[in-house]
Structures are given as structure tokens and as C-alpha cells.
Amino acid sequence: MSRKARKIWGTVLFHVIICLIGIIMIYPLIWMFFSSFKESSKVMTTVGQLIPDKWDIQNYINGWAGFGGTTFATFFKNSFIVTILSVIGNIIASAMAAYGFTRIRFKGRNFFFICMIITMMVPSQVLVVPQYLIFHGLGWVNTFLPLIVPEWGGRAFFIFMIMQFMAGIPKDLDEAAEIDGCGKIKLFTNIILPLIVPALATSAIFGFYWKWDDFMGSLLYLNSPDKYTVSIALKLFSDPTSVTDYGAMFAMCVLSLLPVIILFLFTQKYIVEGIATQGLKG
Amino acid sequence: MGNRSSNTAGNGRGLSKNARNNLLGYFFIGPWLIMFLAFTVVPFFASLVLSFCDYNMLSAPTFVGWDNYVKLFTEDRLFTKSLLITLKFVFISIPLRLIFALIVAMILNRDSKMVPIYRVVYYLPSILGGSVAVSVLWRYVFAKEGVFNQFLNLIGIPCNISWISNKDTALWCIILLFIWQFGSPMLIFLAGLKQIPKTYYEAASIDGAGKVVTFFRITLPLLSPIFFFNLVMQMIGGFMVFSQAMIITDGGPLNNTMVYALYLYKQAFGYYKMGYGCAMAWILMIIIGFFTLLVFKSSSAWVFYENQISEGNGKKKRKRGGKKA
């Protein structure tokens, strides 16, 4: 075989293998999507047939009705409230802490920085029981507060990421601004903050993914249907001992993934490119 | 300089520069510090104390000494079982995920207009994998009539078992869900591969080194720091697997997927044995700490840092890694 022919074959083989693995990987998701439009009774009997005979949105209507008199509109509203309030607080606190750790020399800085790094290593299981007792004592159980308030301290992972980003901003900039009479707070809000927007956006996107999917928190702290977030509602909605309406279940699964998928599609270029070139953990 | 110091005095309301910096520092790390003290430091030590107590939330905690720990290791058969299941889970799923990530990253490491699209497709499961929806989906993919059996039938393997409710295969379904999310380490490996200078490979090929030799002598050593970092982080995450096990199998069949965190949850919040749960959590932390330390200690033998050969190059790389465009 000539060199050129071999190269073409190599390229073809590459695309075939990669496409094949890719299709196998996302096939379950595709199957779920198509199944959600099938007649509910046919979902598990026509598994081999991907495309539904008749496209039907009845599953979405049935599923949206929810359970216990609460519709999925409430669950989605709750999830959005929890996620958005958490992420905003989280990003503000993370940016502030990152600035404090990188740009201000204060007593105890190194000690607390090491503390922060250690928190990344502590398994959440160690903290979960006392945290529950604290929130129980505060009377916060069955409110959104236990899911939101702790996030207002920022996350070590985000703080660390923003710090790394800030390390790329020359310190001369700070000095120049300070000589011009700019205080540290003004320097942070007017100069540093606009420069670290990419790091903040990355943190916000991952913060959204993680909070939207958070199951443990909702499971522990929310116990009445009007407070449920999507993740816990979906878990109860699809309880294997009681579920009969597979179509509605898949329909709600698809809807629950939509915010994440939409966000991902809008930011994928940025996120995937970011990780692929910088190698930050995602 | 004079201008600056007069400024300091003006802004700081008479405080010295050091005092003002201390104040500002704590102002900026304040939100983090308050939450850290309230929801990490206090629970951390409370958990340690509680692990030596009997506490069911109804009556006051009573100190029982080492009882919880002794009970765990001597009487609680399910504890030992859940620990072994978790070890099996971690040491199968995490290496396989990383190896698979590396293989796909190596295949994808070429110039093609399609690569960005492939990257997105491969990364998608990592984004969605933690959700309840995917866990629910998984239950039906590996059900008796599920997609997986259909696929096996299609390629000529007749199969009619329910992978989820079979006691030998149930754990493998969850392992597979973890391997499925290989996208994020894959992207990181891809970034690492891109940073290996092409000249290394050129030099090797001039010396007559084959593909296999190049892989083991150049690619693997240069990727080992990234591999190491991922191994540590993913291992810690693997030990804490919870929601997938709860949603897909809820520990069954016959407790064969009762992973550690799930058993801990059931003890603490199912039976309200808070002290017992805390003791389990501390054992988990010690186990995680032990394996993390083991990986760290062994790393000098297998992790290769580039600045061992060329200080300048390594430095340049780290600088680039820290910045984000």
C-alpha cells in the first residue's frame, strides 16, 4: 500500500472507531429521549425500536403533574431558587477569598490557606451528621437554607482555581493602582474582578452543574413535596417499587437534564476548550 | 513613596499598614472563614466526639468510649462487607476509567476538524453522570428488557438476565456508570499530550524507537504527574460514591452494592444511630487518608517530573498551566 493510501485508511479508521465508541456511549441518553415520546406501555416492550411509531407528548403532560398534588413546576422552581442563590453566593465568596489569599499579606494567611486546601481532602461524610444536627437545631430542616447558606462561604476548589487565575495578573497593576490612591476594596471591585471573569464563569458553570444535580442535600433536608428539588422529586417519582408510567418517568428525566445540557451546549466551547488546553480538573 | 504613605494614613484612619492589611485580609476571606468555622471546623470535631457516643437525637448523647468502633469491627458483618465492596468498586472503576480516558485521549490526539465535536460528545457523560436522571436511566438500561441486553442480542450474544437484580453483576453496573464518565480525565490527558514537545517523538523515531517503546518511554512518563493527580482526586471521589448506588440498586440485591457511604447514611439517618455513623465516617477518612498517603509515597517511584531533566521547560509549562485564556 502506498503511504498516502495508508494515511487515508488510518484517518477513516480513526473516525469510524471514535464515532462507534461515541454512539455506544451516548446511546442510552438517545434512547431515553426517544422513549419519552413513545406510548408509555410500549417503552419497555419496544426497546429494540428506537424511533417511536407515533410522537406523543402525553408523557410530558402526565409527568409534569408530579405527585402528592405538587407539579414539576414547583420542583423546577425550587431547584432554580436553590441553585442560583447558591451559585451567586458561592462565586462572590470564592472571588473574595481568592483575592484575600493572593493579594493581601495578613497574619494567619498561610495557616488558613492550608486549612482550605485540607478541606478538599475531608470526606463530606465526616461532616454530614453534625451539620444535620446544627441545621436541625437552627430549625432549618425542610427549608432551602441548609442547601444555600453553606455555599455562601465559597468552595475550596473554586477558590483555588480563581487563585491560580489571579496569579497570572501582574502585581504591578495593584501597585500602580495603589499609588494612584486606589484602596484594596476598590482595586478588587474595579480592577481585579473584571479581569477574572473567565475564572468566575467557569466556577459558576461547574457550580450550577453540581448544585443542580445535588441529591444528598435534598434527601437530607427537604421532606415535604412543596419543598422538593428536581433531583429528590425525580428519585421518588421513579421509585422502582411504585413506578408504572415509564413514559412519564423518562419524560421528566429528560426535562431534568435540559438545564444542564442547554448550559453545556452554550458554554461547551469555552469549558471543553479550557480544560483541553489548560488541563484544569472538571 | 511619600505620596503612598500619606495615602495609607488617609485611608486607614490612622491604622498602620500591617493592621490595615490584617483587617482587609480577614474582610476578604471573611465569608469563607465564617462558613469554614461553622460548617467544617465545628462539625469536624463534633463528629469525632460523637463517634465515641451513642446518640439517636431523642435523648442526650451518652459517652460509650470505643464501643462504636469495636462493634463495627467485631459484630457488624455488613460493615465489613460494605467496606470490601467499596474497595472493590474504587480499585476497579477508577483505574479503568483512567486507562480508558488515556486510550481515548491518545486516539483523539491528532489534527482533525472533527476532534472538537468528539471531545464534546465524550465529555457529555461527565457532565450528566452525577444526576438522578442518569441513575434512573441506568436502571432501565441494564434491566431484563433493557438496552444492554438488546445490544448483546444484536451482536449475537443471547442474554436475558437482569443485570441490576443479579447479585454478581449489580455492582458492575455501577462500576460501568463510573467508567462511562471518563470524559473529564480524558480532556485533562489530552491537554497533557498536547504539551509534550513533538521533538521528543522525532528524536525517538530517528533513534529507531517503535510506537510501543515511545509510549512507555516518552508518553507515559511525561503524563504520569497528570495521571497521579487524577488518581488521587478520583480515588477520593470514588470512596464517597453514594447517590448512584442508592438510586440504581439501593444497596441490593442481598446488600451486594451496599457501598460504604450508603451504609453510613442508612445507619445515621435510617436508624438514627448518629454516633455509629460518625464512627464509620472517621474510619472512612482514615482509609482515604491511608490510600492517599500510599499513592503519594509510591509516587516517587512512578511519577516522573519533567524538570528532573530540564528545569527551564518544566517551569515554563507550569506557568502556562496556571494561566487561563
User: What portion of residues of chain B belong to β-strands?
Assistant: under 5%
Number of helices of chain B: 15
Assembly category:
heterodimer
Large-scale geometry of chain B = globular
So, CATH architecture of the largest domain in chain B? Orthogonal Bundle
Order of helices and strands of chain A: HHHHHHHHHHHHH
Largest sheet of chain B: 2 strands, antiparallel
Basic shape of chain A: flat
Describe this structure in words.
- The complex is a heterodimer of chains A (282) and B (325).
- With 282 residues, chain A is mainly α.
- Chain A folds into two domains: 56 residues, no CATH class; 172 residues, MetI-like fold, CATH 1.10.3720.
- The mean pLDDT of chain A is 89.
- With 325 residues, chain B is mainly alpha-helical.
- Chain B has a two-stranded antiparallel sheet with strand order 1-2.
- At the A-B interface, helix 1, helix 3, helix 4, helix 5 and helix 7 of A face helix 1, helix 2, helix 4, helix 5 and helix 6 of B.
Task: Summarize it.
The complex is a heterodimer of chains A (282) and B (325). Chain A has 13 helices and no strands. Chain A is mainly alpha-helical and 282 residues long.
Keywords:
heterodimer; A: about 280 residues; mainly alpha; MetI-like fold; 2 domains; 13 helices; about 70% helix; B: about 325 residues; two-stranded antiparallel ribbon; 15 helices; about 75% helix; about 0% strand; globular; disordered N terminus; disordered C terminus
